[in-house]
Specification:
By secondary structure, the protein is mostly helical. It has one domain. Helices cover 59% and strands 4% of the residues. α1 crosses α4, α2 packs antiparallel against α3 and α5 packs across α6. The protein is globular, with a radius of gyration of 21 Å.
Length: 153
């Protein structure tokens, strides 16, 4: 179904006004690109990585403690970090840096989902990520101060 155009092959889209599909990079190349971006981000942002690791350890300790609301303090620390970025108008830039540090896909829907997945262990379920990120996003939309964010969790 390919046709020649000026000596080069051009893929047909099949009509109906569709654009030809752009060939995707092989999966191995995409993995190399993600790994390279992650290594570059780790060398560029060591302070950010240490802050995220501190919050990650706080969440792990809260889960191991068995206390029902122990997770609120590390989430408050995470919100305080994001709130500072929001006030500096650098939230989107920092979210992309966090995503590169932890090799996480960025979606437009909720920036806190990237932050939550960055500080949770690999076995974190989608429900927990969604519940926490929605609550923190709602607090951010209402411009709640980091000291008062406990009411939203």
């Amino acid at each position: 179904m390919d046709r020649q155009l000026n000596g080069r092959r051009k893929a047909r889209a099949g009509g109906f006004g569709l654009q030809p599909q752009v060939p995707q990079a092989p999966a191995a190349q995409r993995r190399r690109d993600v790994r390279r971006a992650q290594e570059e981000a780790k060398s560029k942002f060591p302070r950010l990585e240490s802050k995220l690791d501190k919050i990650k350890n706080g969440i792990r300790d809260a889960r191991l403690s068995g206390r029902r609301f122990a997770y609120k303090e590390p989430l408050r620390d995470l919100y305080e970090l994001a709130y500072g970025w929001y006030e500096e108008d650098k939230l989107d830039e920092r979210i992309r840096q966090v995503a590169n540090l932890r090799a996480i896909c960025v979606r437009k829907a909720n920036p806190f989902s990237v932050l939550i997945r960055a500080v949770l262990d690999e076995d974190a379920d989608r429900k927990t990520v969604s519940r926490w990120s929605v609550a923190l996003n709602e607090a951010m939309e209402n411009e709640v101060a980091p000291t008062d964010v406990g009411e939203y969790l």
